[in-house]
Amino acid sequence: MSKARYSEPAPRPTRLGEWLRHLREERDLALREVADAAGMDLAHLQKIELGQRLPTEQQTARLSRFFKLDETETQARRIAEKFQHEFAEHPAAKEAIGILAEEAGVYKGRGTKVEGRKKNG
Q1: Confidence class of residue 108 from pLDDT cuts 50, 70 and 90?
Q2: What is the spatial distance between Cα 108 and Cα 104, in angstroms, rounded to a whole number?
Q3: Residues 80, 74: Cα–Cα separation, whole Å
Q4: In the CATH hierarchy, which fold is given to the domain comprising 16-103?
Q5: What is the rounded distance in angstroms from the CA atom of residue 39 to the CA atom of residue 35?
Q6: CA–CA distance, 17 with 64 (Å, rounded to integer)
Q7: Within the chain, where are the H helices?
Q8: Where are the domains of the chain?
Q9: Tens digits of residue pLDDT in 24-70
Q10: What's the pLDDT score for residue 4?
Q11: What is the residue-wise DSSP string for 73-86?
């Protein structure tokens, strides 16, 4: 018999800001310390943690180095969140994600509009 607890909500993807806040708190670091390391204003980092702002590419690189994270993963999280902020309500957003996934070799179209697209290279 399964031990699944149906009263628990399904885990939701962690936003970049939530993820960074978790890393900071896990290491018992002050907001000011992380902001200084990333070369940003304290209020800006606070807004990033709250999901109200996104760090720049350079700030993301500095945060990756500070936390000793894989920069590619951290930048990918930033890009994904930026895409979501800009296009979440757009009716073509899901198809665009499918195209990107197919071109990255992660997904094959199933007779949809994305089928037949050629990969570069």
Answers
A1: low
A2: 10
A3: 10
A4: 434 Repressor (Amino-terminal Domain) (1.10.260)
A5: 6
A6: 13
A7: 16-26, 31-38, 42-49, 57-67, 71-87, 93-103
A8: 16-103
A9: 999 999 999 999 999 999 999 999 999 999 999 999 999 999 999 99
A10: 52
A11: HHHHHHHHHHHHHH
